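yo, Exo 1,3/1,4-beta-D-glucan glucohydrolase is done. seq:
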Amino acid sequence: MKPMKRIPLRKPALAVLVALALVSCQPEHGPAATQAAAPSSPWPEVKWPLAEDPALEKRIADLLATMTVEEKVGQLVQGDIASLTPEDVRKYRLGSVLAGGNSDPGGKYDASPAQWLALADAYYAASMDTSGGGKAIPILFGIDAVHGQSNIVGATLFPHNIGLGAMRDPELMRRIGEVTAIETRATGMEWAFAPTVAVPQDDRWGRSYEGYSESPDVVASYAGAMVEGLQGKVGSPAFLDGRHVIASVKHFLGDGGTSNGKDQGDTAVDEATLARIHGAGYPPAIAAGAQTVMASFNSVNGEKMHGNRHLLTEVLKGRMHFGGFVVGDWNGHGQVKGCTATDCPATINAGLDMAMAPDSWKGFYESTLAAVKAGKISQARLDEAVARILRVKFRLGLFEAGKPSARTVGGQFALLGAPEHRAVARQAVRESLVLLKNNAGLLPLSPKQRILVAGDGADSVGKQAGGWTLNWQGTGTTRKDFPNADTIYEGIAAQAKAAGGTTELAVDGKYKAKPDVAVVVFGEDPYAEFQGDIPNLSYKPGNDADLALIKRLKAEGIPVVAVFLSGRPLWVNREINAADAFVAAWLPGSEGAGIADVLLRKADGSVQHDFKGKLSFSWPRTATQYANNVGQKDYDPQFKFGYGLTYADEGDLAPLPEESGITGEQSASGVYFAKGKPAIGLALQLSSASQANMPATTMPVALADGSLKLSAVDHKAQEDARRLQWSGAQAARWVLASATPIDVTRESNGDVQLQLTLRRDSAITAPVWLGVGCGEGCSGRVDLRKTLASLPQGQWKVVGVPLKCFAVAGADVGKLVQLPVLESAAALDLSVSRIALGALNEAEVTVDCPVK
Ligand code: BGC
Ligand code: BGC
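structure:
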């Protein structure tokens, strides 16, 4: 990479000053600190809080001396439970296993806590099994316990970080970390991939909600407390005991700074900015003894972080004296120039100690072993990485801990969603709510009235919990998946009932008895990572149903309180204007009842809990104001960072301007065909050997020989789908062509699918090819014959093909110009209403095709 300009820090953030103060009085460095960066470095020196321990170092050296090179390389590799069996662990002696967002015991997103624990026991037993001759080195099991132990049914679900940022309450963060750690331990894991200390600068980013704040100071004020909550306080007996887990501070570095808010993109900033904004969370986290740091998917000035030796080794391990180990992100090493998911010595040489190689672990293990043997990775570097990993395992007492179910709280499932844990989460919900408007002091409401609770967020734990909940995207869950939770409606109903009031739930607002007041709960549907990237900050472009609902109730003379669920501030000026009161509730998690705690008065009329939340992200004035952050020169948001009314304030708000700032239509990313139309930039074509690329702009339309005919049909709305009728005269294709190549490389890393909502109306007698094209002579296709034949005739179904299948079948998924191509040589009658990228659990049927 190009050496970056090291500009001296002008205005050091608070955390940096604290860290500098810490280091100046205690000059001692971490065990394997490498050469420090230049004195003019913008990076603070940090005091690693654990003194070098000669007894520990001796244990590590003794163990290392007995390990074969195969065993050492094994420690550097982490596989995913969906692709790695305990038997593999026994054989390959891998250092770690993770459960990715969509990976569950038995493939069931709602697997029981007992099944999770049994799985943890099985991996542990395999790692300790020396029957094949290997050394017994206990495995580390990591999971995305990012808002509580959020992959497991029954766990306490905390508000996502964006809501926690609004609390400005580091002490409560510590409690949240403690509860998360205990619930994680109860189910057998000892490693949480948290906290995220991203400092999101562009709210279009699909991971904005994983960040505490756009302000580095807020992030810095939380990072240390959260690490201490998860791990216990260094120097206390609680540190890394059986009730705590190791943390992963992520994603190092610059994840929140990518251009246009594009997930896994490029953060193009000078090094001083990188340190001051994006680096702010690391000094306090390291000073608190964070045991792991996760490398980021993004690049910094064009160089992928997984290959960035300067930042991983010189800055993080050297200058900042980080004494834990660096873990990679999901095949993140595969994005380094010259690397693939299964082969990347460069990442280890750059300073990564453990690669997250979920489905690629075997190839990665073999190529790394070969690289060590060929001298492409030095013995010293290998030993240093293994020593760092072993150091963490020893500190955690893993060698003496026994199997996960036999540890301090292993198997104590009553801890999942325990009342005292839920009370912590409920407090967090109360403190995170931000009141943006309260005309005529409508709030707080008397619980003694007749309250209507409406909107599709009113009675949905899935919607209020957001992404990273039971599965990666947080979609497709039902009420019964959350035994320890309250919806927002349930919270309001219980309190109103106790006070002698009444409530009615009507998602569509169509009440039976006219209410005194309505609470309308609406907002974003769950998403995670790049699937949540959006082109601008419009709220549900093209769908004004929530606005219409609020307006209808108002027109009927009913005062309306809007409760907005979202993973980021969005442009909702029209909804704010339409409602009397407006609450930004973020993604509160399992404790929907925390909302009633603040919105409703006590039965005696007094205030139960006042609003405390203050915006930790600036609220946009228009839908195009996505990167207007506190401290900037042109700072001019609708509601400033720090804004948030209380009941003591005069809450009246003059009508806001209603121009969105959007010109022209912008399509949702990852949707290629919907409502009967191709997405902007795509065109429909029919093709055969005798007639190529015939545009299909009018309906109906057919190839001259009648081999393929296209007409409009209805699925959910009038003419929102297309019927494709092949005569069998000759092979013919329906093509969605793109003028500019579409890059789905990042979506192909993982289990993202190309999904077609379709209906079969004929028998399937021959292959039906679904393919993608990537230019002259470049394509990959999959036969849908078996899948289609298995579908009930005449019914709409969502059929998914893992994107990886197209890559395996020969396509270059980095430059697709035909997405997709649907081809048949035989007679066939098929209708299609939607073509889009989607998560595994969003498909009703997944096509079985080779992914490796
Ligand atoms: C995410 C990480 C996460 C990991 C494991 C990645 O895609 O970026 O935040 O910890 O997957 O699920
Ligand atoms: C996994 C996530 C991971 C993502 C990365 C998903 O399949 O479940 O944990 O973060 O892929 O693309």
